[in-house]
Amino acid sequence: LLYIAQDIQNMGPLWVYWCFVMQRYCGSLLPSVKSKKHPETCLANCIRDLAQNSHIKLIYQLHD
């Protein structure tokens, strides 16, 4: 963690370049992969389902 201060000085705020958010998102998709032959189809279906659920929540003003 000692390098973080130097990285902030060199590259700016963490949210600009830190990959933790994307890594966490990819990690949440991993359990949806059920097929070794076509993992991309499983991922596409999972992402589609997440988008549909978000859209339904938005349309009907539902909250978690």
List keywords for this structure.
single chain, 64 residues, mainly alpha, 4 helices, 0% strand
Notes on the structure:
The protein is mainly alpha-helical and 64 residues long. The protein has 2 domains: 1-32, no CATH class; 33-64. Helix content is 69%, strand content 0%. The chain is built from 4 helices and no strands. The chain has helices at residues 3-11, 14-17, 20-29, 39-59. The longest helix is centred in the C-terminal third of the chain and has 21 residues, at 39-59. The mean pLDDT is 88.
* Shape annotation: flat
Question: In what range is the share of β-strand residues?
Answer: under 5%
Q: End-to-end distance, in Å?
A: 34 Å
* Total tally of structural domains: 2
Number of strands: 0
SSE pattern, N- to C-terminal: HHHH
| Radius of gyration over all CA atoms, rounded | 17 Å
